[in-house]
User: What shape does this take?
Amino acid sequence: MKKLIILDYNRTLFDPINNKLFDDVVVNLKKIHKSGHKMILISRLESTRLTSKQLAAISKYFESI
Assistant: This one.
């Protein structure tokens, strides 16, 4: 059964202290995406964080941001 997965950007995928994605985030998102599950990304942070280059690298894996 395919599932909908909701992920939070800050401190789940993105490390705000080091201003980068956590290790293996892209690899794991690719695996989830290939399995057919749908993902939604949420964040309560200011929009500047959601326009980061790190987000651009992973946005293609999400149905909605």
User: Anything to note?
Assistant: The helical segments are 25-34, 47-50, 53-58. The chain has three helices and four strands.
